[in-house]
Design brief:
The structure is a single chain. With about 210 residues, the chain is an alpha/beta fold. It has 2 domains: about 20-120, 3-Layer(aba) Sandwich (Rossmann fold), CATH 3.40.50; about 130-213, Rossmann fold. Helices cover about 35% and strands about 20% of the residues. It has a 7-stranded mixed β-sheet, sandwiched between helices. It is globular. The structure holds glycinamide ribonucleotide. Glycinamide ribonucleotide binds next to α1, β5 and α6.
C-alpha cells in the first residue's frame, strides 16, 4: 500500500458526550457506509448517541440493509412522490420530529435542502462531502478532483446551509491522490477517512463546537 505523509486531524479521545445520548436522524440516498460507521461508533461506546430514524429517498438503496443490520427503523420518503422540494422537506421534518430527533445527519443525502428543513433544525444539521471544501462542491466531487489534477483531496464535515456543500466546516481529513488512482480507488480511500471523522465531527458539533463564533 502506498504511504502518505499527509497528516489527518487528531480526534479527541474520549469524544465529548452529553448526559443523554443525542438522537440522530440520518438522511441518506445510497449505500449507507457512513451511517454504518456512525452506528458502529455508537455500538462501541465511542459516540454517545442513538440513531432515532434512517430516512432514505431511493427505493432499494443499500442503506436499508445496513440499517437492518443495526436494527434501526427506516422510513422511505421518495422525492419523486413530492411536487416540490419544500413538500419533500415538510415530510422529512414531520418524520424527524415524530422520532424526537436532535441532530440531522446527512450521510450521502443527494437532495438540495430548503428553508423548510433548515429552519426546523437551526444549526443542527451536518453533512459530509467527499472533497476538501470549498473545493469541488456538488456532484462527482471525486471525479472533479481527479480531473483538476490536484494531488490532495479529502473529505469535509460541515454545518448545512442553503447553498449546496457550503456552511461552516467542522472537521476535514486530507487524502493524497496517486497517479494510478481511478475514481473507485480514490473514493475508497476517501471513505476510510469519512468513516473515521464523521462520528467524531458529530460529537464535536453536538457538544457545542461552533465553527462561526
Ligand atoms: C459519501 O462519500 C459522501 O461524502 C457523499 O456520498 C457518499 C455516501 O456514501 N456525499 C456527497 O457527495 C454529498 N454532496 P455512503 O452512502 O456509503 O455513506
Amino acid at each position: 500500500m502506498q504511504n502518505s505523509k499527509l497528516k489527518t486531524p487528531p480526534i479527541p479521545d474520549p469524544l465529548p458526550r452529553s448526559p443523554q445520548p443525542w438522537r440522530l436522524g440520518i438522511l441518506a440516498s445510497g449505500n449507507g457506509t457512513n451511517m454504518a460507521a456512525i452506528a458502529a461508533a455508537i455500538a462501541t461506546g465511542q459516540l454517545h448517541a442513538e440513531i432515532a430514524v434512517v430516512i432514505y429517498n431511493n427505493p432499494g438503496a443499500g442503506i436499508v440493509a445496513q440499517a437492518e443490520k443495526y436494527g434501526l427503523p427506516t422510513v422511505l420518503h421518495n422525492h419523486r412522490d413530492h411536487p416540490t422540494r419544500e413538500d419533500l422537506d415538510g415530510a422529512l421534518v414531520a418524520t424527524l420530529k415524530q422520532h424526537w430527533v436532535d441532530w440531522v445527519v446527512m450521510a450521502g443525502w443527494m437532495r438540495r435542502v430548503t428553508a423548510v428543513l433548515l429552519d426546523a433544525f437551526p444549526r443542527r444539521m451536518v453533512n459530509i462531502h467527499p472533497s476538501l471544501l470549498p473545493s469541488f462542491p456538488g456532484v462527482r466531487a471525486v471525479e472533479q478532483a481527479l480531473q483538476a489534477g490536484v494531488t490532495v483531496t479529502g473529505c469535509t464535515v460541515h454545518f448545512v446551509e442553503l447553498v449546496v456543500d457550503s456552511g461552516p466546516i467542522i472537521m476535514q481529513a486530507a487524502v493524497p491522490i496517486f497517479p494510478t488512482d481511478t475514481p473507485a480507488t480514490l473514493q475508497a480511500r476517501i471513505q476510510v477517512q469519512e468513516h473515521r471523522i464523521y462520528p467524531a465531527a458529530i460529537a464535536l458539533a453536538a457538544s457545542g463546537f461552533s465553527a462561526i463564533d
